[in-house]
Amino acid sequence: MISEDTKQPLLAYQKQFSITKEQLAQLIEQPSLLISFGGTFGLCQSLQVDPTVGLLPDETFHPTYGILPQTQSIPFEDRKSCFGKNEIPEAAMKSFLSLVWAAYNDQTLIMLTIASLVSLAVGIWEDQSDSHPADEPKVGWVDGVAILVAVAVVVVTNAINDYEKEKQFRKLNAKKEDRPVKVLRGGLAQQIHIQEVVVGDVMFIEPGDLLNVDCVYIEGHNLRCDESAATGESNPVKKHEEGKGDCMIISGSKVLQGVAKVLVVAVGENSFYGRAMMLMRHAEEETTPLQLKLNVLADQIAKFGFLAAGLMFIVLLIKMFTLSYLHHHWISTSELLSTLIGIIIQAITVIVVAVPEGLPMAVTLALAFATTEMLKDNNLVRHLSACETMGNATAVCSDKTGTLTENKMTVVSASVAETRCAKSSEIQRWRYQVHPTALDLTLEGISVNSTAFEGRDAEGQVKFIGSTTECAMIEFARKLGYAYQDQRAASRSALIYPFSSSVKSMTTVLELNETNVVSPEGAAYRVHTKGAAEILLRACSHYMDVRGNVVPLDRAMREEQEQLVNSYAARSLRTLALAYRDVSKASFEGFNPDEPPMHDLVLLGIIGIQDQLRPGVIESVQAFRRAGVFIRMITGDNLETAKAIAKECGILTPGGLAMTGPDFRALSPREQADVIPRLQVLARSSPIDKTVIIARLQERNEVVAMTGDGTNDGPALKLANVGFAMGIAGTEVAKEASDIILMDDNFNSILQALKWGRAVNDGVRKFLTFQLTVNIAAVVLSFVSALVSEKSESILSAVQLLWVNMIMDTFAALALATEPLTDELVRRKPLRKDAHLINWRMSRMIFGQALFQIAVNLVLMFHGPALFGLSASTQDTKVLRTMVFNVFVFLQVFNELNCRRIDDRLNILRGITHDHLFLAIQALVVISQIIIVQYGGLAFKTVPLSLSQWLFTIGIGSLSIPAGIFIRLLPHQLPYFWSENNDDEFNHEISYPRLCWETAVQHVLHGLHVKKAEEVTLAQKEARHF
């Protein structure tokens, strides 16, 4: 319901337009209504936009041309107020109180609260009863209150963690939605953020775009969209101009083919896509595989915790009645109730300590921390599971252009009409050596057969926007003084075949007029094509010679051009051929709109484009090798260019195999499987090659990461265990299919993703090692001490155990699951997919430390009075209990240092000066422990310790470190139940020289195998001869 105050401004805005957002929404549902609005141009008139000019930047702008001169400039804010913003409103963030309630909504905490309330009531009743000694303080209520306060602290701390985690994920989600789009404003094509698109904008769309706005088709060429996500229609839907077919483009559609200029009619939550997203906004949060594993483990441990607590309750209950019977002492009602409540609280506290609710939290914290830090390393994580999966990657299949190279294309060599230019510095002189007709045709083709356009960056500097290859070609034309924008404005494109990775070319058909280069008599249209040199050469039957004449492309000239292509490729240059063909009207009408006319072309020339290797790529490739990750380069470039780049960056090694996509596809599945282990470079590849390679690698049980940027890369990115889409060069379809977006398109960022993936896995395993040690030690110590105590009291009180629980859950998760990256992460092989969550080294440390801690505390508990000269008085008993509590806590503090490493290296302090969060948390725990012991006596049942007692307990606690060293020096041989699945990756650390040696050995062995095969074949031939 719109209030009267709100309605008045809306009516004011709507007077500027003769259509409402409700009518536009109805138009999407019923496209036939377009006629009633006056068709496409009538709709433009209603929205105050000229389709040839676009929205006007401001009221002072007056275009010099247009077909709807009566349109007026309306501020963008007015459009947003009337038709909405292009944003999906975020679901309201959970309030802090709701997060507190969610954290408290735990069965064990609720049980503990009830028990503490009963304890509080009983304590107050005992304090007020006549049987309470007059000379003793009335502190029976303290236990209940202390437990309630401890529960509150645990709940609030968990709620704060959840709140911070949600804030971090919201920032990431906002970043995911941000992307640039091309629009027409003030007669100029420009790039804006998608959130800035408003109703009435004229937008350009091309293959790979994922639309989040509803549009009406204005004009374009062969536009086909995948509307399956919106309508369920599995076949691509072709779009037409009004009156010729379907002209409505629904948000959520993917552009598969063609280009078009469209009118935006609905944005944000008013669009078809927006309405669907509003319905799905409450979908459940993603659960990662590691979280699922840990949830299963937590459930298993919880069962043991409940079993131990149940057993403890039964044994202590039996003990209470047995002692009462043996001593002929009948327990009073109040005494029975008090003792029973105490036993129940101890049992519930054991459950609280035993149940590892911190495990899932550790994964969440690790992922939240890692994804935030990965964004700083230009990795935008779309699916949380990809972060941890990347840590176990065994193979990376990478594109070349823009990933391994800088994607800063520059034309450095050219050959047009048999006139060559070998260096970029000679281009200005070369232009006067080329025949004018050939040069004009070449530059005409560069200008019109391109989707790149001129724009401005954030600083207002002129820059070219679009494919980097096309930008390089346009820059080449500009350097030669060619007015490419004038040529574009004067030319009329009759048909456009956008670049396709399957045909490796782009074609534009012009309708000839007086502005075009002279053409033969009878020609009405001109076909301009650019594409991969060796592929386009096969489509050419003629070439333009040095005199500007079109002559047949004979065998000798074809071989000469092929040699030129190979010479460019040997210099690591990308080679591009330019060709054209003039045709009659009758020939044009016979063209297939779905397949470009790739025959009888006239070769104009070949261009060599340089793209330098990115800094740091060579080092990253070496780091991947040390990490046990096999790198493959999959590129659309020709074989020689691909091999030159691969050798330069270290991907192609002796014994490695380089081949082309067609050759790979020609192999049988079995032959492909045999080739895959040695395949390092695949040139002239198609998107289908990527899916085949992924499938063959996954058959070998490998974890595959794949990069992609094109629309057709979508299936491969989905199939890969981790799909990386290019943030700069990638299409929206590729990004939507990916798990991680490389914001800088940089290969080095993939290495960072690998490190963070391993850091997440390591952080969780470190935390798991620490927490299970505390779980075992605390439960056993509580059980044994309560069993032998005369009063059936655990040596560690309920409040003390809750403090220990906070140390091992929240604080440990923050300290161990958020450690910074180190280079050691990429000096070992990846974990196997079926690896145990707890490996042999972890088990050895968990049980070794737990046994050590139990032994130390039991010795103190039984022999402490003799060691410290303490009597059996109440005060000395409190001192002993406080010392045991202090020792137990400091055993955890020092064991947390042990858990910083989960390998067998002894330097547990390495890199600790850079781990500021770990040091801060350790300092917080130590300071809190000092305050608890010295000043928390009433709540925590402690007494202040002397300096010597502090030094002694800290010294005993520090023995965790030498104990950890001793455990690490134990034999490495695995027990029987681990022997069939040795997942201990630390046994397989790799040095680069060793890797080179192994590669060389494999190369020699392969050579011997080939030699032996040749000898066998020769022997068979000789046998047949005789």
Automatic annotation (TrEMBL):
Identify the InterPro entries for this entry: ATPase_P-typ_cation-transptr_C (IPR006068), ATPase_P-typ_cation-transptr_N (IPR004014), ATPase_P-typ_cyto_dom_N (IPR023299), ATPase_P-typ_P_site (IPR018303), ATPase_P-typ_TM_dom_sf (IPR023298), ATPase_P-typ_transduc_dom_A_sf (IPR008250), ATPase_P-type_domA (IPR059000), HAD-like_sf (IPR036412)
Residues folding into a coiled coil are none
According to its UniProt record, this protein's enzyme class is translocase
Ranges where the Cation-transporting P-type ATPase N-terminal domain occurs: 77-119
| A molecular function (GO) term | ATP binding
Superkingdom classification of source: Eukaryota
Enzyme Commission (EC) number: 7.2.2.10
Q: Which UniProt keywords apply?
A: ATP-binding, Calcium, Calcium transport, Ion transport, Magnesium, Membrane, Metal-binding, Nucleotide-binding, Translocase, Transmembrane, Transmembrane helix, Transport, Vacuole
The record gives the membrane topology as:
Multi-pass membrane protein
Tell me the protein's name: Calcium-transporting ATPase
